[in-house]
Amino acid sequence: MILSVRDLEVTFRAGPWFNRRPIVAVAKVSFDLDAGETFAIVGESGSGKTTLAHAINGLQETSNGEVLFMDEKVDVSRSRAVKPLRRHMSMMFQDPVGSLSPRMKVGDLVAEPFIIHKIRKNLKEEVQRLLSLVGLSGDFADRYPHQLSGGQARRIGVARAIALEPELIIADEPTAGLDVSVQGEVLNLLSDLRERLGLAMIFISHNLHVVHHVADRMAVMYLGRIVESGNTEEIFGAPAHPYTATLLSAIPNPDPDKVRERISLSSEVPSLLNRPSGCEFHTRCPWAHERCSTESPYHQNSGLRRVACHAPLDPGAQPPCAERAG
Amino acid sequence: MYEAASKLLNSLRRVIAEPLGAVGLILVIGMIAAAIFADLLAVHDPTSISPRDRFMEPSVAHLLGTDQLGRDLFSRVLHGGQIALTVALISIAVSLIIGVVLGLIAGYGPSWLDNSMILLFDAIKSYPTVMLALALVTLFGPSLTAVMIVVVLVNVPGYARIIRTQTLALKSSQFVASAQSIGASTARVLRVHILPNSIGPLLILASMDIPVVIAIEAGMSFLGLGVRPPTPSWGSILNDGFTAIRDTPWIAIAGGVPIILTTLGFTFLGETLRDIFDPRLKTQA
Fold this sequence. Notes:
Chain A is globular and about 65 Å long. In chain A, helix 3 (106-116) crosses helix 4 (123-133) and helix 3 runs parallel beside helix 5. Chain A has helices spanning 49-57, 79-86, 106-116, 123-133, 150-162, 180-197, 208-214, 232-237, 242-249, 290-294, and strands at 3-14, 21-33, 38-42, 64-69, 72-73, 89-92, 168-172, 200-204, 217-222, 225-231, 306-307. Chain A has 2 domains: 3-221, P-loop containing nucleotide triphosphate hydrolases (Rossmann fold, 3-Layer(aba) Sandwich), CATH 3.40.50.300; 241-326, no CATH class. Chain A is of the alpha/beta class and 326 residues long. Chain B is mainly alpha-helical and 285 residues long. Chain B contains 11 helices and no strands. The interface between A and B is medium-sized, with 29 and 20 residues.
């Protein structure tokens, strides 16, 4: 086991000083990750995916729980202790161009991990090697980030992330903002490197197609909680949580003959400042019954497949209420 | 070493390639050269009084004429330039260093520190320059050092505020998070990622402040708080000329034109340098 996240909680404070209210962005998240495994985290915008990624990397202070990486605690308040861990864990950020320092040349950006960790190597050679590894020619070393396309910038992000041959890469929306053909290229590059270097990956995305394609296991987040987690194939085959079923039913299907019932949700995502009681999905759940609005299901954890629901769905279940179903 | 020199030469070439930059560079170099070689260029003693030669029009003997005490204006302008440039460059450089350090601390540090520093900056800024000058001169006596301390006090809050604002905006940017996720120390984040991205506007402001400083020096010299009378300064020459501007305009011109040319020179140079050092504004070669 390379990474273990235990009851992780991230709380922000919002509002004027006389009325500070806590916003729980990530609530009681637990999961484990084995070496070489790819774990996907999916969920809609604002579900706490990125905050969770930052917390795992030690960029975000946590209010509860702990992150153990290679049996060491990732503790934001002790930056000296976190620094050696970061040699083995790297991160790719959402915005491909925005995550590259605008006044540094690509060569310096790719060499930065070696400089920070004081690894003596022939940096020029190393930069050329990494650039060719991510499929870019050596001339790119003299370019500035603003002279790169989104796909090229993403490749530089990949080069930076794999420079120190980490055990774990946290990829936050690695395909966001790229057009479909470039998305494919980046994904192939990532899975290629993953096989060659044997690295584990946390893959954050809201692109379910991509997740199905790359992840061994996955977790679905809703309002900062993991509502369902398990083997990717199993979840895609038979989603047990109504929210997962809703997400999966929203995937556009390229096959015109295959008509799939789409489950649509009527109401908006509840505010994090005003979390619903009981099961937090009950305000939108087509299958919700009385018990859901009072009793919290978030303790039902057993085995590899975890579902936080009072009444997990049977395979192929259709929503009961006609007016809620689309 | 070689690389640094070739880099400098390269940027110099690019400054000259811009018409504004070339004009600015010529003016600035001319002013600095005139100040450095003032003793060689000025044939007359800038402080020797000769009542018989007072209010003489520009001629071959006195290139810019003479003032109300018969002192050669050309010599006075050259020596005044020495003082003006020394005061301006030293005090701006000191203000920049202090302002950048304080701004980075305020912007990157905890919010209580930021708030108290901003309060202090605003408190200093709320004093009129002349009041500060008077207070300092009462404490230390009139001198060039007093002028420079006033300039530093007046400039640091503004400089620090600019860097602070930029730092605040940049510290939550993804490239800073990216550097932190690799393990970059706070010092490295500030030095390599935040400072180069925030100093541009400050350098422009500072280069445009040089003439302001020259004006502060002139103003204080006029009030007797800076350079004292026999020593020449552009400000005091300009002020000497004011009283007699109808009859003998060349005195005011001799004091005013160098101020204008220096202002233009540093402004042009500053703007060109900004264009060159911001790769986003760079045109593809």
